[in-house]
Amino acid sequence: MLETYRIAGRTATELAAAVEAAVSEGRLAPGTPLPPVRELAEQARVSPGTAAAAYRLLRERGVVETAGRRGTRVRPRPASTAAREDIRVEVPPGVRDLSKGNPDAALLPPLHDALAAAARAHEERPAMYGTHDDEDLLALAAARLSRDGVPTGGLAVTSGTLDAVERVLTAHLRPGDPIAVEDPGWSALLDLVAVLGLRQVPVRVDDDGPLPAELGRALRAGVRAVVITARAQNPTGAAITAERAAELRELLAGHPDVLLVEDDHGDGFVEVPPHPLAGATPRWVLVRSTAKSLGPDLRLAPVTGDPVTLGRLRGRQRLAVGWVSHLLQRAVAHLWRTGAVDPAAVAASYRERRHGLVAALAEREVPAHGRTGLNVWVPVADESAAITRLLARGWAAAPGARNRVRTPPALRVTVSTLRPDEIVPLADDLAAAVRAPSRGRYG
To answer: Is the pTM of this model over 0.85?
Structure first.
């Protein structure tokens, strides 16, 4: 294949983009070997350092892999054409599936009254072209944000967290720009970063959120943006404490050109209060999706941020979908206003299942993490072996490879539907399935 395709470009970004385009268009097939660094440098008439940097960009984007003496090759399923969500376990009949990451349907609110109220409002005030976001929803969202110490100079509404993040990133960044992401982190975000052609800079986390030393390293390396989860971090359950927030804000304040994107999807089902970073840099947004608290199909996300970023987000939204359905906006407003969900009770239910499993695993000398949220993160020596052994015992967990960049192997166990009587059997089977766990943070 390389005999008919010549890699061209003057910079590392241009060389990497040329290879990625060739892969996406089928001109470089999976498994195709790429020339050694020095050969590429001579071919493209650039320095060996530039060629090496191009390959590093391609590895970070998941387009190529380096396999010792076999050299650098196009990955069998490059990230530009295959999503991390495709890394999944086929769950046989009769196996208890704890791999999906969904909330407990029994803890979601009934929608009959909310949808009926939205329909009545539509009959009275139908949403037409040029209609702005629902004022009732905006007022309720602003009050909830203000309660948690988040500045709300303005608000927008998007179709969930990823919708907001994509619009903000594309409005501020360009392909090849470096962006700091949590490691392990949300698989959909890691996919999005790859699709946008951004260069991910992984930042390790512990139970209290991103490690300050890791974020500091990423900032000094010149990242253009940072994406941070406030609480219920997927997959580890990390939640930023007041002390950690103060450290992170201080670091961010020293880099005023960095875009801060804060994900607080834990609102409504997490027991710990948020410690927002909002405003730590001049360009920032904070996004609050309702997908986990009210249901994945009732997804929308109020977004607040600085005026410039919100303006760009709204502008890109108008050029695409235009707006989020007012039927959904009014339904969510009704649920919030009437208190259809008791957030404390929902959070307590998830906490009982999550902490119960973590404690049971600790008794069996298996380290695990799950401070908040729907999941427990269990470090393992070998993901495939652990998953196979766990399936044989009647349980399915998600492979950590979906969420990891550089951190060691692990399993993600979704506990949202775990029954109290299942905790001990699951802990027994997990302890038997995992090989000697690695030490340290999430590995």
So the answer is: no
